[in-house]
Specification:
With about 500 residues, the chain is of the alpha/beta class. It has 3 domains: about 50-130, Alpha-Beta Plaits, CATH 3.30.70; about 160-355, Type I PLP-dependent aspartate aminotransferase-like (Major domain) (Aspartate Aminotransferase, domain 2); about 365-500, Aspartate Aminotransferase, domain 1 (Alpha-Beta Complex). It contains 19 helices and 15 strands. α15 (about 420-430) packs antiparallel against α19. The protein starts with about 25 loop residues before the first helix and ends with a helix.
């Protein structure tokens, strides 16, 4: 298949200017990307949009800066006034905003102050409030900077209504309980801010994180809590008695418990039933992110007050949409407080992204079961391979049965630790290599290197990861729908290379 090959540095897949994945084919490229090597960065016209500024967005920023006379300024484009105001409030001073098109704001700072530039870009990355490549493309057309847009299938009717109805059916709620957001991180940020604001009114200031969280989710919890608010991290989600004891100990100071289920990257499944029951007894808010297995495969809303998820995975089965959603459990005692606050903080998705999502969600219903089946077979193969020291799948813990929609279906993601050489394996494997998962094609990434390079490259960071059971060299695999025998053959080739 076309996906079974070595992709050159920066190559997008699929062949769309809106692809959210571009290839880092060697570990040298991975390190170069993380260390801001100019040759590597120059090859990336696109990539995961919250980390790589899309070529369309860069072109649009340059146009606005020239039009407005903003020289020697570093700029980011933010969707919506509320998000732009949030940015200025968080960044505090030395920044300004300018509405450059309806609902599109250029937030800018002195480009010579590296700490300001870094803070602005990190804010957009963590909160997911930047404009999408499709919106940038349309604005370039509007300003006669491009002559045509990329042709792709999109739903011709009321895409927002259809997408909300489809999501409500998958999540198990009403359409009025669902809010589609510009990205999964924006869904998390909007949910966090809503819960934070609600808990201030109740005097609850203690946050509890269960297990490892995705990079930016963890950054939001770490950096957006106010003075007097606390965060405690319990990394072992299997330590149920200890988790329950800590929740009880926090009592009426408990603001919220946040968990990814399954977790990323170790794919662990905690006992949501017991944990959510205790959280509710103590009056806290339960926030659950099921992205790793997806709302196609698991049903976690009954245990959540607030569900947040990325739809870039699984729902965007082609890997070409940055989008997310949140849902408030209509049975939550906090429903009225949360549903109003989340809508105030979220950034709505761009209309073309929603239209594209509707098409791909229709495809995903048929494709996701094939991903599940291939992932289950590949896991059985990998866990017994001499080149693999440990393999992880959400299907292993018995707790997956509590939340799985169909038997033990657990999604397309597998994580492995190699017994051989990481660089030999990674450089050899003939697949797309980059972040994201839940696509119809198989891809993989050295997850900790891409998400937590600071930890894997320092002795103290590596020691910390080992203490909490995470191997810095682990590989995260997203299994596609290609013929299974061909997928296995690709991994056999790379694993043999790693141990010879």
């Amino acid at each position: 298949m076309e996906s079974f090959r070595q992709f050159p540095l920066g190559a997008p897949f699929p062949k769309s200017p809106h692809a959210v994945i571009s290839c880092l084919p060697t570990m040298r490229d991975v390190r170069g990307y993380e260390e801001q090597d100019s040759q590597v960065l120059a090859a990336l016209d696109s990539g995961y949009p919250r980390f790589v500024l899309h070529a369309f967005v860069r072109e649009l920023i340059a146009y606005y800066c020239k039009r407005e006379g903003l020289f020697s300024r570093d700029c980011m484009l933010i969707a919506g006034r509320r998000a732009a105001d949030d940015a200025l409030a968080y960044l505090d001073w030395g920044f300004a905003k300018l509405e450059v098109d309806q609902g599109v704001y250029l937030v800018h700072c002195d480009g010579s102050k590296e700490e300001h530039v870094r803070s602005l870009r990190k804010f957009v990355q963590h909160t997911g409030c930047g404009i999408s490549s499709r919106q940038a493309e349309d604005l370039l057309l509007q300003h006669s900077l491009r002559s045509e847009s990329f042709q792709e299938a999109g739903f011709a009717g009321n895409a927002e209504t259809k997408a909300e109805a489809d999501l409500a059916g998958l999540i198990g709620c009403r359409t009025s309980d669902v809010l589609i957001c510009s990205s999964g991180m924006n869904a998390f940020y909007a949910g966090f801010r809503a819960v934070q604001e609600f808990n201030r009114s109740r005097g609850r200031r203690a946050w509890l994180q269960l297990g490892w969280l995705y990079l930016d989710s963890g950054r939001v919890l770490d950096q957006f809590l106010d003075e007097g608010e606390t965060l405690e991290c319990l990394y072992d989600v299997s330590a149920l008695d200890y988790i329950l004891a800590r929740i009880r100990a926090l009592g009426d100071s408990l603001a919220a418990v946040v968990v990814e289920c399954p977790s990323n990257p170790l794919l662990r499944v905690c006992d949501l039933k017991e944990i959510s029951s205790e959280v509710r007894r103590q009056g806290g808010v339960m926030i659950i992110d099921p992205t790793v297995a997806s709302v196609y495969n698991v049903d976690v809303l009954p245990y959540a007050d607030l569900l947040v998820t990325s739809l870039t995975k699984y729902a965007s089965i082609e890997g070409d949409i940055m989008i997310g959603a949140l849902a408030v459990n209509p049975k939550s005692r906090f429903y009225g407080d949360l549903i109003l606050r989340t809508s105030a903080y979220h950034v709505p998705p761009y209309r073309r992204d929603v239209a594209r999502l509707c098409v791909e969600m229709d495809q995903a219903r048929e494709i996701v079961p094939r991903l599940n089946q291939n992932a289950a077979e590949l896991f059985r193969y990998l866990k017994n391979h001499a080149g693999v020291s440990r393999a992880f799948s959400p299907a292993c813990p018995s707790e997956i049965e509590t939340i799985s929609k169909e038997g033990r279906s657990a999604g397309s993601v597998i994580t492995i630790e190699l017994s051989g050489d990481l660089e030999k394996f990674y450089d050899c494997v003939r697949l797309m290599k980059g972040p994201s998962f839940g696509t119809r094609f198989t891809l993989l990434c050295p997850f900790m290197y891409l998400a937590h390079y600071d930890l894997v490259t320092s002795q103290s960071g590596r020691e910390f990861l080992h203490r909490i059971g995470i191997c810095p060299e682990l590989i995260r695999i997203s299994v596609g729908e290609e013929p299974y025998e061909q997928i296995e053959a690709i991994f056999e080739e790379a694993l043999q290379a790693s141990i010879t």
